[in-house]
TrEMBL record:
The lineage of its organism: Bacteria, Pseudomonadati, Bacteroidota, Flavobacteriia, Flavobacteriales. One of its GO terms (cellular component) is membrane. One of its GO terms (molecular function) is glucosylceramidase activity. One of its GO terms (biological process) is glucosylceramide catabolic process. Residues 85-422 form the Glycosyl hydrolase family 30 TIM-barrel domain. This is Glucosylceramidase.
Length: 491
């Protein structure tokens, strides 16, 4: 009887949803008619940096585009994944550089990233569980050999990292999501007796290491820092000169289903989102299949995390691999957990191609089902550090510790074309370019605004038509530029 009543109650809701979908489909042109399109542009060899370059474009009739007309076709009625957010990692390095800035530069930095109006509205934070390469030294939260974790303490993080995380959260008005990642267990837990140079977690310390995650999450939350979830291991197939730990797919699966998953559940942290893999797109399919095809492991996994460094081999970025995982496991979330431009060179701080790398990756990753996108360090110094093993890299913003000034790179503005405009809970919608010179993705915000991002990879200025149904507006985009088009779809 209860099932029957529930079914009867659901029928009107389904009918209403179907009617709304039919209404939107039949009235798409009406809903955009007379609406202005605002255009924000960043372009190479110009002063345009997230600059409003048009606000009076309107849709007119274009019933059948010609082959000679370049178009971006947007269909708001075809929806896909929900948007979680965009952000970057607050590492020890970022926090240490922040602490060296003047109060004025600190406030400028916080607004630049975490204020939606004055900045680009970051809504995701990643942080490291004890040290990583972007720390000034290797350290853990326990004394060497303390498998019982009786000496566990995060006092180290209270000096720089936790204060910056709290300031970022406050600037964002509390509307921010944080997840955490470990680079290596303590040395005594590993077969190489070293936090660096890979090595593996010894079987006798599986439970102790699972308890370590619980200690970290619980302690951070007591500090007033809510944590959405965690990745199991940063780059589990990379033997690095810095903190690293190797897990085969089977080892990561077994650690998750026998230790980490049950331990989080049994300690009241079963709501934390567990993210597997956390490494490059190249092996993502094999790792996802091994873990998610196991029912016991699968039940603990919220999503699959990935990085963009597969191009180290000399090949191209494997964007399509992300889409393949989305096809195989549509009930799991895909999260870009790390990316940065490697091999720091001060003379290339304003290299436009670095920003374009971000734009290309973000568009392709979102179009392949990604729900959120997390850059690596939010802030580094004028040398691309600090980094205790010399692995210096670029960040979207660098703080010159000699002058106290912030240096904004093209990457900051490319990321901003997404993070400033797409709201949490937005739905990705169909967005297709008719020519390869243009890349595009689109989202429908909860309040009805459409956010269409268009990137021109070519050396030529291009005129294109933004098309919805048989309505279109003509837009001009400069060479090597990125645009965000904002327009209302419904009331």
């Amino acid at each position: 009887m209860k099932k029957l009543l529930l079914g009867l109650l659901l029928i009107p809701m389904l009918l209403i949803a179907q009617q709304k979908a039919r209404y939107l489909s039949e009235n798409a042109e009406f809903l955009i008619k007379g609406k202005n399109v605002m255009v924000y542009t960043s372009a190479e060899n110009t002063d345009f940096r997230l600059t409003k370059t048009d606000s009076y474009l309107q849709f007119t009739d274009l019933k059948q585009p010609l082959e000679t007309q370049i178009c971006v076709f947007v269909n708001p009625n075809k929806t896909f994944q929900s948007f979680l957010g965009i952000g970057g990692a607050i590492t020890d390095a970022s926090a240490e550089v922040f602490a060296k800035l003047s109060m004025e530069s600190q406030q400028e930095f916080l607004q630049a990233y975490y204020d939606k109006e004055k900045g680009i509205g970051y809504s995701l934070i990643r942080t490291n569980v004890h040290s990583c390469d972007f720390s000034s030294e290797s350290y853990t939260y326990v004394e060497e050999g303390d498998a019982a974790l009786k000496s566990f303490s995060i006092e180290h993080d209270k000096k720089f990292r936790i204060p910056l995380i709290k300031k970022a959260m406050a600037t964002a008005g509390g509307k921010i999501t944080l997840f955490v990642s470990p680079w290596s267990p303590p040395a005594f837990m590993k077969d190489n007796e070293n936090m660096l140079h890979g090595g593996k977690l010894l079987a006798e310390f599986y439970q102790s290491w699972a308890n370590y995650y619980v200690k970290f999450i619980s302690t951070y939350q007591k500090e007033g820092i809510p944590i959405l979830g965690l990745t199991i291991q940063n780059e589990p197939m990379a033997k690095q000169t810095w903190e690293s730990c190797i897990y085969t797919a089977e080892e990561e699966r077994d650690f998750l289903k026998k230790y980490l998953g049950p331990t989080l559940k049994n300690t009241g942290l079963g709501d934390k989102k567990i993210i597997a893999w956390d490494h490059n797109r190249d092996l993502i399919s094999q790792r996802a299949s091994t873990i998610l095809d196991d029912p016991e492991a699968n039940k603990y996994v919220w999503g699959i995390g990935f990085h963009w460094y597969e191009s180290w081999s000399g090949g191209d970025s494997m964007f399509e691999n992300v889409g393949k995982v989305q096809e195989m496991y549509p009930d799991k979330n895909l999260l870009f957990t790390e990316g940065c431009v490697e091999r720091f060179d001060y003379s290339k701080l304003q290299l436009w191609a670095n920003g374009e790398r971000y734009g290309k990756s973000m568009i392709n990753d979102f179009n392949n089902g990604t729900v959120g996108w997390t850059d690596w360090n939010v802030l580094l110094d004028e040398n691309g550090g600090p980094n205790h093993v010399g692995n210096f890299c670029f960040a979207p913003i660098h703080g010159d510790t000699k002058t106290g000034k912030l240096i904004y790179t093209p990457s900051y503005f490319y990321i901003g074309h997404f993070s400033k405009f797409i709201d949490k809970g937005a739905k990705r919608i169909s967005s297709v370019a008719s020519r390869s010179q243009l890349l595009t993705t689109s989202f429908l915000n909860p309040e009805g605004k459409v956010i269409t991002v268009v990137m021109n990879q070519s050396n030529d200025a291009i005129k294109y038509y933004l098309c919805i149904g048989t309505k279109a507006t003509e837009v001009s985009i400069l060479p090597h530029a990125i645009q965000t088009l904002v327009y209302q779809f419904n009331d």
